[in-house]
Specification:
Layout: H1 5-15, H2 24-35, E1 44-49, E2 55-60, H3 63-74, H4 80-102, H5 124-140, E3 147-155, E4 165-172, E5 178-182, E6 193-196, H6 197-202
Antiparallel strand pairs: 1-2, 3-4, 4-5, 5-6
Length: 204
């Protein structure tokens, strides 16, 4: 996430909040309300950019794009691992769609502070909101056979020497195992990091 002091100060109250009592889709939706963002409705997403969702763009993920995503996910319903691999490809395509929709310079990975406020540039809050929005749309379409979308998570509290960073989260339906879905370090069109949430929390 960006190291801009203003954004850090904004993130601190959220980081110090207790873990949400809700789980699954309600918890994911509650995260949007907590931050003052707009959750998806149908196939309509309010895509965040400019760092901290300073800029917002209505975007529909439907038609041919959604049909391709649906085909990829339905072909991967054999196991949770296969579904995660397919999700990585779907999100890779989605980040390309976002970059084309925002226009201008494609997002620079890792949200360098000098790009704050620039259209099309995303910090980890933007990435988390956009990824969670897409995951909720896919879930609403019945395309997630092995996972549910859960409340985004964060790591880093300043006190432990790490800057705050957020990620979207999915959980396996059968085991409850949680996975981070994090495209923040990747350029548009690259596969996101999808890894066990506990391991993601340990990264710097």
């Amino acid at each position: 996430m960006t190291r801009t002091p203003l954004l850090i100060l904004k993130a601190l109250p959220i980081l110090l909040m207790a873990a949400p009592a809700l789980s699954g889709q309600q918890a994911a939706q509650s995260w949007f309300a907590e931050r003052g963002y707009v959750e998806p409705s149908g196939s309509r997403i309010i895509a965040c950019h400019g760092y901290g969702c300073a800029r917002r763009l209505p975007l529909s993920v439907d038609g041919a794009w959604l049909s391709r995503a649906a085909a990829a996910l339905r072909a991967a319903q054999g196991s949770p691992d296969a579904e995660r691999r397919a999700l990585a490809d779907v999100i890779r395509s989605y980040t390309s769609l976002l970059a084309a929709s925002f226009g201008g310079r494609p997002d620079v990975p890792g949200s360098p502070p000098q790009m704050s406020g620039v259209p099309g540039q995303m910090d980890c809050l933007d990435e988390t909101a956009n990824t969670t929005s897409l995951l909720l749309v896919l879930q609403d379409q019945g395309l997630l056979a092995h996972h549910v979308v859960d409340h985004p998570e964060s790591r880093g509290f300043f006190f432990d020497g790490r800057y705050p960073h957020f990620t979207a989260v999915i959980a396996e339906k059968r085991t409850g195992a949680e996975w981070a879905v994090d495209p923040w370090k990747k350029a548009p069109g690259q596969r996101p990091d999808i890894l066990p949430l506990d391991r993601w929390r340990q990264d710097s």
